Amino acid sequence: MRRFRFARLGIVILTSMVTAVLLMGTASAQETKRSRIPGTIATTPEHVRELQQALTKAGYDPGPVDGIMGPRTKAALRKYMSVPPPQAPTQADEVIRRFRTERRESP
Length: 107
Prior knowledge:
Layout: H1 2-30, H2 45-57, H3 71-82, H4 91-105
Helix pairs in contact: 2-4
């Protein structure tokens, strides 16, 4: 009889712990993602997707337009920034410039 009581107690404790972990994971997933670099803002997938499309139009390869700021997108952005700005900016150049300005001005 005592074994069953301890088994039930263990199941209740285990269930409550699993529920708590799941709730904490759901709450943290719903929060806005914070940037890992202090002083910069976290970008939304839509914003990154717009940047990737602009980089593609400007002739750089950010990889797939998936809204993820991955290594290929970062490399394409670094290549874009290493080149002198064009004389007559295109619409893609304006999107990239706006992205860079917003990241600098954010708290």
